[in-house]
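hey
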């Protein structure tokens, strides 16, 4: 009988561990409604048709990555539910992702994936109307999560009507006066007999792609600006007042290889940026992005420096946020300050990205009092997309937060 020496056995074990270990970095992750890369990811299911979710990303890895995509239904705070009835077991994981190899000229990434869900073979389904998360995980250990994203599924919707109105704030003197320009959004609907009025819960409004900071109208907390009405029968109304339109987004367009020639570039070819408070809105991607085609030999990653000089009287720290970080305010995107200029360098793939600068305080290590308008402006001519969702505490399957009405409106 042939015996393996202890030294050789140790080497074989190391090789086995090495073959299953992955040094994986997911980059340029985007999720959107299939066919429109600048859209909020909303899957609509009707009796005759449905839309799909597109997920695409690059991977920086030495070997072809072994990756799954895990889909989980969430409650209203985007926390995946532990309710086994909502786990969708057997239809919630997409295995064996097929990757394409990026051009050899692309630095910092090697593989590319794009897929539509639900997939054509029916391995993944979304049976519940509401909020969902997806997780890009290691195939051998799904507790290892490389990246994640959010999307909405809406079906079995009831009829509803959403109205939109411009208003001028008059409760105090605003300076500059543009800060007094606001929108009001009202959603009216009637529930069918099989639904219970007490289970109608709240309205959430997502502006453009900003799922991190929705406008919420809760039936249990009426204020001057967030109001709920019920006629004691089956008709309801949610009102969100004093929604500032903001301004058109700044835009970094890195596609021109003749302008942005090196690895280290500026977000704006002219360099330094300033306040846009009194500038007219630009045409933008409503908070989205467009990437250079992944097959393009110039679709590589650049080190992009954003720099802004705010007015001298500005107080607070400046944060960069945009399509590249899902509009999150985080310490990672706190801009460095030096001699009146705030700057930050981040890696971005060639493409077009909407972004803006937000001023906020840092108190006890937390980001407080964010001001999205002081450097960007507030103008009724700004064209925004507003996604309006009505939630219902459905008692089925042990209880879950179900979207029962959905509207997309555009401010013009």
């Amino acid at each position: 009988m042939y015996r393996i020496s202890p030294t050789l056995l140790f080497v074989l074990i190391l090789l086995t561990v090495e073959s299953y270990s992955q040094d994986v970095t997911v980059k340029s992750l985007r999720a959107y409604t299939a066919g429109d890369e600048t859209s909020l990811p909303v899957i609509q299911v009707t009796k005759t048709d449905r839309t799909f979710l597109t997920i695409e990303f690059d991977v920086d890895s030495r070997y072809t990555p072994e990756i799954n995509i895990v889909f989980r239904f969430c409650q209203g705070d985007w926390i995946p539910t532990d309710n086994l009835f909502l786990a969708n077991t057997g239809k919630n994981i997409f295995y064996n992702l097929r990757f394409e190899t990026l051009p050899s000229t692309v630095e910092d990434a090697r593989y590319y994936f794009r897929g539509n869900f639900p997939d054509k073979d029916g391995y993944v389904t979304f049976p519940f109307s509401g909020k969902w998360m997806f997780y890009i995980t290691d195939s051998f250990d799904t507790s290892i999560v490389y990246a994640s994203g959010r999307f909405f599924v809406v079906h079995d919707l009831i009829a509803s009507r959403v109205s939109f109105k411009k208003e001028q704030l008059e409760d105090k003197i605003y300076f500059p006066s543009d800060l007094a320009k606001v929108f009001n959004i009202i959603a009216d609907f009637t529930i069918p007999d099989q639904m219970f009025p007490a289970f109608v819960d709240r309205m959430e409004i997502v502006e453009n792609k900003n799922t991190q900071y929705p406008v919420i109208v809760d039936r249990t907390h009426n204020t001057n600006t967030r109001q709920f009405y019920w006629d004691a029968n089956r008709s309801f109304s949610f009102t969100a007042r004093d929604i500032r339109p903001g301004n058109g987004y700044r835009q970094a367009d890195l596609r021109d290889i003749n302008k942005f020639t090196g690895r280290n570039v500026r977000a704006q070819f002219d360099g330094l940026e300033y306040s846009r408070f009194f500038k007219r809105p630009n045409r933008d991607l409503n908070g989205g992005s467009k990437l250079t085609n992944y097959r393009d030999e110039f679709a590589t990653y650049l080190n992009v420096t954003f720099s802004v000089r705010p007015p001298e009287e500005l107080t607070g720290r400046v944060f960069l946020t945009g399509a590249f970080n899902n509009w999150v305010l985080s310490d990672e995107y706190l801009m460095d300050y030096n001699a009146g200029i705030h700057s930050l360098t981040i890696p971005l793939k060639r493409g077009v990205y909407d972004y803006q600068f937000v001023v906020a305080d840092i108190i006890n290590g937390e980001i407080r009092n964010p001001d999205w308008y002081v450097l960007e402006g507030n103008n009724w001519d700004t064209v925004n997309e507003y996604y309006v969702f009505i939630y219902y505490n459905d008692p089925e399957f042990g209880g879950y937060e179900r979207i029962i009405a959905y509207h997309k409106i555009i401010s013009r």
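Helices lie at 6-20. The longest strand covers residues 351-363.
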